[in-house]
Design goal:
This protein is mainly alpha-helical. It contains 20 helices and 6 strands. α9 links the parallel β3 and β4. α3 packs across α9, α8 runs parallel beside α20 and α11 packs antiparallel against α12. The structure holds arginine.
Length: about 475
C-alpha cells in the first residue's frame, strides 16, 4: 500500500508504478536522506514537536537502516517509489508509530532538495581531490621538463619555442580555475532547504537554523518556494564539469597528436594504451580518446537539465526528478576521467629529442630574428618584412635561419652580425622569453611553485577539517 493511498480508490497501474519510480537511481542518496531525517527528527524533538521517546526510536531506527543497507541487507522496492518513501516505510515497519511521525513538518519536496544539495556538496569535494592530484602530476612532470624545448603552436603551425613545462603549466592553470569554480559553486549552494516543506513552509514551530547548522550549512534557504524548486547548484555543477571536461578534452587531443608517428613527442606506457585486433603494430591512445569522447556526454547532461528546468512553473514539479541521472552520470564520468588521465600522464614517456628536432624545423625563431634586428634599431615592422624575406629564401634553399651564412643574412640587412647565431639558438630564444608568464625557466619555476602552493593550501585545509 502506498504511503499516500488515502485519497485513491484504485491501485497504481503497474506501468505507471515503474514509470514513476526513481529508486533505481536515487538510492544513491541514502546517506544524505538518512542524515537529513536524523537532523530533522532531532530538531523536532528539541522544539518539543516530537516526544523524546519517539525521537530516540527514530534515531535508532535510522542508524539501523543505514548499517543494514551498507551491509547489503536491504532491498528497496519500486512500490515505494523513491529513496525517501522507501526509508520512511522501512522505518515504520521497524519502529511503528514513531516512524509515521518523522514526516511531520516536512515534505518530500524539501527532503529531496536537501538530499541532492548535500550529495552535490560532497561530490564537489571528491572532484576537487582528483583535480589536485592531477595538478601534482603536472607539477612533477613540469619540473623535469623546464629545459625541454618544444614548438609552441598556433593554428597547429609551429609558432614560437616553449618548454614542455610551460605547455603543461598552461593546463595546470586551467585546472586550478576549475577547482575555484567548483569551490564557488559549493559555497553558493551551502544553504539548507529543509523546512521549506512542500512549498509554503510549515505551521509547526520548527527551527530551521538548527537543522541548517546540524547539517553543516551556512544558513537556511531564504524563501521556501525557491528552496524546493531551485536546481541552480546542479546546473552550476554541470557547467563547471563541462568546462573542466573541455580542458581535459583539449589535453587529450594533444596527447593523441603527440603519440602519433607524425609528432612522437611522447610514448604512452603499455598499461595505459591498447592494441588492435587486426594490426599487430598498433598502440592506440584509447584512454585519451575516451576522455575526449566522454566530454560530449557531460555537455549533453548540462543541456538536458537546462532544458528540463526552463519552462517549469513554481514550485516543485515532477519533471525535477529528472535532475538526478544527468548529475550522477556527469560526476561518475568526471570522477573516472580525471584519475585515469592523471595516471596516463604520470606514466607516459616524454621524448625531448623529438620535440627539439621538431622545434628545429618550421622557423619558430623567426620572431626572434625580427626582434634581433629591432633591438639593433630597425623598426619592428621592417624587421618583420626582412625576416619574412629570409624565411622565403630559406624555404627555397631548404635551410633554417640559423643555417644561413652571415653573407646570406646580410643580403637583407647590414645590421646582422655574428651575435645573430646566439640570438637564433632555440634554447636562448626560450630563455629570453622571461616576461611574466613566459616559458623561461625562471618563469616556469614560479608557475610551478604557484600551483604547488595552491594545492598545498587546499590539502592543508582538508587535513584541518
Ligand atoms: N522522487 C522525487 C524527486 O526526485 C521526490 C520528490 C517527490 N515530490 C513529489 N511531490 N512528488 O523529485
Amino acid at each position: 500500500m502506498k504511503l499516500w493511498s488515502g485519497r485513491f480508490g484504485k491501485d497504481t497501474d503497474a506501468l505507471v508504478n515503474t514509470f514513476n519510480a526513481s529508486i533505481d537511481f536515487d538510492r544513491r542518496l541514502y546517506r544524505e536522506d538518512i542524515r537529513g531525517s536524523m537532523a530533522h527528527a532531532k530538531m523536532l524533538t528539541d522544539c518539543g514537536i516530537l516526544s523524546p521517546e519517539d525521537g530516540e526510536a527514530i534515531q535508532r531506527g535510522l542508524s539501523g537502516i543505514l548499517s543494514d543497507f551498507e551491509a547489503g541487507n536491504i532491498d528497496f522496492t519500486a512500490d515505494n517509489e523513491d529513496i525517501h518513501m522507501n526509508i520512511e516505510a522501512l522505518l515504520t515497519e521497524r519502529i511503528g508509530d514513531a516512524g509515521k511521525r518523522l514526516h511531520t513538518a516536512r515534505s518530500r519536496n524539501d527532503q529531496v532538495a536537501l538530499d541532492f544539495r548535500m550529495y552535490v556538496r560532497r561530490e564537489i569535494g571528491v572532484v576537487i581531490g582528483h583535480l589536485l592530484s592531477l595538478e601534482t602530476v603536472l607539477c612533477e612532470k613540469a619540473k623535469a621538463h623546464q629545459a625541454t624545448v618544444m614548438p609552441g603552436y598556433t593554428h597547429l603551425q609551429r609558432a614560437q619555442p616553449v618548454s614542455f613545462a610551460h605547455h603543461l603549466m598552461a593546463y595546470a592553470n586551467m585546472f586550478a580555475r576549475d577547482v575555484t569554480r567548483l569551490e564557488d559553486c559549493r559555497e553558493r549552494l551551502n544553504k539548507c532547504p529543509l523546512g521549506c516543506g512542500a512549498l509554503a513552509g510549515t505551521t509547526y514551530p520548527i527551527d530551521r537554523w538548527k537543522t541548517a547548522e546540524e547539517l553543516d550549512f551556512d544558513a537556511p534557504v531564504e524563501n521556501s518556494m525557491d528552496g524546493v524548486s531551485d536546481r541552480d547548484y546542479a546546473l552550476e555543477l554541470l557547467s563547471d564539469l563541462s568546462i573542466l571536461m573541455t580542458h581535459l578534452s583539449r589535453f587529450a587531443e594533444e596527447v593523441i597528436l603527440w603519440c602519433s608517428w607524425e609528432f612522437k613527442f611522447v610514448e604512452l606506457d603499455d598499461a595505459y594504451a591498447t592494441g588492435s585486433s587486426i594490426m599487430p603494430q598498433k598502440k592506440n591512445p584509447d584512454v585519451a580518446e575516451l576522455v575526449r569522447g566522454k566530454t560530449g556526454r557531460v555537455y549533453g547532461h548540462l543541456m538536458s537539465l537546462l532544458t528540463t528546468m526552463k519552462g517549469l512553473p513554481l514550485a516543485y514539479n515532477k519533471d525535477m526528478q529528472e535532475d538526478k541521472e544527468p548529475v550522477f552520470d556527469a560526476l561518475d564520468t568526471v570522477e573516472i576521467c580525471l584519475p585515469v588521465f592523471a595516471a596516463m600522464l604520470d606514466t607516459m614517456k616524454v621524448l625531448p629529442g623529438n620535440m627539439r628536432q621538431a622545434a628545429g624545423r618550421g622557423f619558430i625563431n623567426a620572431t626572434d630574428c625580427a626582434d634581433y634586428l629591432t633591438k639593433k634599431g630597425m623598426p619592428f615592422r621592417d624587421a618583420y618584412t626582412v625576416t619574412g624575406r629570409l624565411v622565403a629564401y630559406c624555404t627555397r634553399e631548404g635551410k633554417s635561419l640559423e643555417e644561413l651564412s652571415l653573407e646570406e643574412l646580410r643580403t637583407e640587412s647590414e645590421l646582422f652580425g655574428d651575435d645573430v647565431y646566439k640570438a637564433l639558438r632555440l634554447e636562448n630564444c626560450m630563455a629570453l622569453r622571461n616576461s611574466y608568464g613566459g616559458p623561461a625557466i625562471r618563469e616556469t619555476t614560479r608557475q610551478i611553485q604557484d600551483i604547488e602552493d595552491f594545492v598545498a593550501e587546499r590539502q592543508q585545509e582538508d587535513a584541518d577539517t
